[in-house]
Design brief:
Rossmann fold, 317 residues, 3-stranded mixed β-sheet, alpha/beta, 13 strands
Length: 317
């Protein structure tokens, strides 16, 4: 990427998009075109067409998506499928039509089969059934990465996909129902501490194993991949290669937040996929190793939660 060429980050206000923006600014990039969702609805084909024809960005990070935790994914199944298909179809197609030099599509580790061998290699894609609770979101993301692959094969464009592991960090979503597991735990333990509650209930058996990556580490990996020339992979996993059980995660969050009560498991709630660990051999081969330990990253996320006014509105509501 050239410092003076225009960069479009779709979803720049979200956790991932804002981390990418911070990284690019730190590297000296300055020519950004940024639109909030109320300024540009990426689900509207004509609006996206007009945007690309007017702005003509040279590089695109497609981090915009409808996202949520296991409850949101399973409740709003049609919305997760339709909205994400519309967003990525419009952006990828208009990027091709308007001469974008390089596009990165950000997906999710949920694209892999529920019972795929561990760790998850890129070639396991489409090798078995998906986890039911997030199947619509996963299908949308698979369609997006296949669209990038097809446009590369047919038109020769440099469009590729990265599949991050579970992410957390600055500017995360702490909604009481629709958030992912780690920010949900931060909020619940914090509120329990504030309200002097004796116990916090964690959904499921506590046994599923998950991998977590600080969003700024993801941004570093994305920057490295966008800088690479002459190396093309349709799909590259991004993760840490390390995992932790949900129960151990709960104890770690509890310690960082300073909650002194008991942790109980509600085994009537779904666990989701038993294990999700990314094989990051390709990424390491391109020169990347993550920097932020889980304890350090959660501490930074918790500090951001405490200092951000919109989170105060959430947990005081």
């Amino acid at each position: 990427m050239e410092l003076n060429e225009k960069i479009y980050i779709a979803g720049h206000q979200g956790m991932v998009g804002s981390a990418i923006l911070r990284k690019l600014k730190a590297e000296g990039f300055h020519n950004f075109v940024l639109k909030r969702s109320d300024e540009l609805d990426l689900r509207k084909q004509e609006d996206v067409k007009n945007f690309f024809e007017t702005e003509k960005p040279m590089y695109v990070f497609l981090a915009a998506a409808k996202v949520g935790g296991i409850v949101a994914n399973n409740t709003y199944r049609a919305d997760f499928l339709y909205d994400n298909l519309a967003i990525q179809n419009n952006v990828i197609h208009q990027a091709y039509k308007n001469g974008v030099k390089k596009l990165m599509f950000l997906g999710s580790s949920c694209i892999y089969p529920k019972m795929a061998p561990q760790p998850l290699k890129e070639e396991y894609l489409l090798s078995g059934p998906l986890e039911h609770t997030n199947e619509p979101y996963a299908i949308a993301k698979i369609a997006g990465l296949k669209l990038c692959e097809a446009y590369h094969d047919q038109y020769g464009v440099d469009f590729f996909s990265v599949m991050p592991t579970n992410l957390y960090g600055i500017n995360d979503n702490y909604h009481p129902v629709n958030s992912h597991v780690l920010p949900s735990l931060i909020r619940r333990f914090h509120e329990a501490k504030l309200n002097q509650v004796d116990e916090v209930v964690v959904w499921g058996s506590g046994t599923p194993l998950r991998e977590f990556m600080f969003a700024d580490d993801l941004a570093e990996a994305c920057f490295i991949l966008m800088q690479k020339k002459g190396v093309y992979e349709y799909l590259i996993n991004i993760g840490t290669g390390e995992e932790i059980s949900i129960l151990d995660l709960a104890h770690l969050v509890s310690k960082i937040v300073g909650f002194q009560g008991e942790i109980k498991l509600d085994k009537t709630k779904p666990d989701g996929t038993p294990r999700k660990l990314m094989d990051v051999s390709k990424l390491k081969g391109l020169g990347y190793v993550f920097k932020t330990s889980l304890e350090e990253g959660i501490s930074k996320a918790y500090e951001d939660y405490l200092n951000n006014p919109k989170y105060q509105i959430l947990h005081n509501a």
